[in-house]
Structure prediction request, 120 residues.
Amino acid sequence: QVQLVESGGGLVQSGGSLRLSCAASGSIDIIIAAGWYRQAPGKQRELVATLTSGGSTHYADFVKGRFTISRDNAKNRVWLQMNSLKPEDTAVYYCNMQIVRLPFQSQDYWGQGTQVTVSS
Prediction:
């Protein structure tokens, strides 16, 4: 079994910063990619940022220049540094990892989500 646990969410004023953390535990052989998604009330879940095992990153346009995704492969951990936060960044943020557990194919795993609230 694999479990992802997020932490670091909370309430912050507009312009402030937060750092989200996601730790994966369990039987893990390879983490192909890791990413962060978010879902605001009444909206669909959307991609925020992804990071492959090779180091390639992708950011949604609405966070470019403000958010940074990083990971520690040895510790099976990924972070999302969020700066210059805006009220429209308010959402539940979810960690996602594509994980290989040999001899099986890769599978998507999700964390339980962490609430980020940005006040104006």
Remarks:
- The two ends are 41 Å apart (CA to CA).
